């Protein structure tokens, strides 16, 4: 099954966990052959901002955040998996699996 | 800016002797003070511990990345350390820490260069090859070589 995932990562200090979570989501999505785009909301501001088209076309959304997602209303009506950044840093594989399960309704 | 531009040779400690997380952060703060990257070791230490109190920075795999955005930082940098023994750090996977990247961030930094280099370190810590190489490195030169890639 091919999946399109979009994600937002954000941590408290915006220095490290935001970017570790981004890297780990990409790593495990790619291992499963899924497409993924990750927007980071860190101390450098918003980078790799998702377009509304990216969001509309995605099968599922992952929020790996310890704080509020900026522009959360862009994701209204989507299937959203919300986790802390630490959970994603610790186990990126299960984050991706959970997102896939959300799509298939398991 | 590459990782290696951020982490000068002076900021690589190969045999950090510390029994606890607090002792490790304190010793590395003093080293940053001696190297002139911060202007108050105690103040910086407190700022790092405050961040540590929110969630652990023991990211697993024997690695910790304590960090502080602190007014006592003169110039943003990273200090790298390998410890002589495993340190209890309340890590995500329960592992004891042997590798520390202590990040010092100047909140008044105008440009993004330092933050970009720090983000690069953070994301490379998710790369199994990078982690393995850094764990196997035994000399300052080897560490520099890995961080230069």
Description:
Chain A has 106 residues and is α/β, with parallel strands linked by helices. Chain A is built from four helices and five strands; from the N terminus they run E-H-E-E-H-E-E-H-H. Chain A has one domain: Rossmann fold (3-Layer(aba) Sandwich). Chain A has a five-stranded mixed β-sheet. In chain A, strand 2 and strand 3 form a beta hairpin. In chain A, helix 1 packs across helix 4. Chain A is globular. The model of chain A has no long low-confidence stretch (mean pLDDT 95). Chain B is of the alpha/beta class and 149 residues long. Chain B has a domain of 103 residues: Mannitol-specific EII, Chain A (3-Layer(aba) Sandwich). In chain B, strands 1, 2, 3, 4, 5 and 6 form a six-stranded mixed β-sheet that branches. In chain B, strand 2 and strand 3 form a beta hairpin. In chain B, helix 2 packs antiparallel against helix 3. Chain B is globular, with a radius of gyration of 14 Å. The two termini of chain B are 13 Å apart. The model of chain B has no long low-confidence stretch (mean pLDDT 93). Classes of the chains: A alpha/beta (106), B alpha/beta (149). At the A-B interface, helix 1 and helix 3 of A face helix 4 of B.
Keywords for this entry:
heterodimer, A: 106 residues, alpha/beta, 4 helices, 38% helix, globular, B: 149 residues, Mannitol-specific EII, Chain A, six-stranded mixed beta sheet, 6 helices
Write the layout of secondary structure elements.
The complex is a heterodimer of chains A (106) and B (149).
Chain A: E1 4-10, H1 17-31, E2 35-42, E3 45-47, H2 52-57, E4 60-65, E5 80-83, H3 85-90, H4 92-104
Parallel strand pairs in A: 1-2, 1-4, 4-5
Antiparallel strand pairs in A: 2-3
Helix pairs in contact in A: 1-4
Chain B: H1 3-6, E1 12-16, H2 21-34, H3 41-54, E2 58-60, E3 63-64, E4 67-69, E5 77-87, E6 97-105, H4 113-124, H5 128-136, H6 140-148
Parallel strand pairs in B: 1-5, 3-6, 4-6
Antiparallel strand pairs in B: 2-3, 5-6
